[in-house]
Specification:
CATH topology of the largest domain: Rossmann fold
CATH class of the largest domain: Alpha Beta
Number of strands: 8
Mean pLDDT: 95
Structural class: alpha/beta
Largest sheet: 4 strands, parallel
Number of domains: 2
């Protein structure tokens, strides 16, 4: 890889995990850099106030500012479409590209694509969310024939607090869903420290572990024409040949 690649990420304002983790993932790729634009998100809930945070208007404003950095792709590095519906992210990507002329993707649409490519149907769902949000995710993913055969969540709603969930707790949640039976684990939240755990736990548990931050980086690389297999140490997502080329 010789040409400079700039990956643009749209980021919830109270998120403290995805920026350092995304940057660390591409740290050994000297031609790749990650750039961030924020818009206000402080809580994850099903209240009218919380849902308004994901209005396309604010997200598009952030995307247009990010486009000023001449990024090669713009990713919504957030998981709201998990409970709002995949169509929300499909429409958002279309609107971002129409407004900026830049290819767009999202963490949640990347999850769906990964499961389609690998044939995974039964997942272990790990999140920090409340009961009602978790239930909406399970229902929405089922509509895409993705079955949450096991799940764990911590019951939090303050977005900043998600970053305070310890790696030990996340590891135990992953181990719990694996014991109940699943083909892969999905860590659905871009403000949890799950991505750094993936490779070691995959080796111990024998199933793939897909993290929301990682899926956004993976799909962003594909859209720029870069091979994700250049990234080492962050789990099978980046090494699986089935996931190494854009379709």
């Amino acid at each position: 890889m010789n040409a400079r690649l700039r990956l643009g990420m749209l980021t919830p304002s109270s998120n403290t995990v995805l920026e350092p983790v995304s940057t660390a993932m591409v740290a050994e790729l000297p031609s790749v850099s990650v750039h961030f634009g924020r818009f206000r998100v402080t809580e994850i809930a099903l209240s009218e106030q919380a849902l308004k945070q994901f209005d396309d208007t604010e997200i598009l404003r952030a995307a247009e500012l990010l486009a000023d950095a001449k990024v090669d792709v713009i990713a919504w590095n957030g998981t709201s479409a998990s409970w709002l519906g995949f169509d929300r992210d499909e429409r958002l990507c279309q609107r971002i590209t129409a407004a900026t002329g830049i290819a767009a993707c999202t963490s949640v649409l990347a999850f769906r694509e990964i499961f389609e490519r690998t044939g995974v149907k039964r997942i272990g769902l790990v999140t920090p969310y409340t009961d009602d949000v978790q239930a909406k995710i399970v229902t929405n993913w089922k509509s895409a024939e993705i079955i949450c055969s096991a799940e764990r969540h911590t019951g939090l709603r303050d977005n900043f607090s998600f970053a305070e969930v310890s790696e030990h707790t996340i590891s135990e949640m992953i181990r719990s869903v694996e014991r109940e039976g699943c083909e892969a684990v999905a860590i659905v939240c871009t403000n949890m420290r799950g991505a750094p755990l993936a490779q070691a736990l995959e080796a111990k548990l024998g199933i793939p572990i897909y993290d929301s931050i990682a899926t956004a980086v993976w799909k962003s690389l594909l859209l720029t024409g870069a091979d994700p297999r250049q990234i080492n140490g962050w789990g099978s997502l980046f090494q699986d040949a089935r996931l190494s080329v854009q379709t």
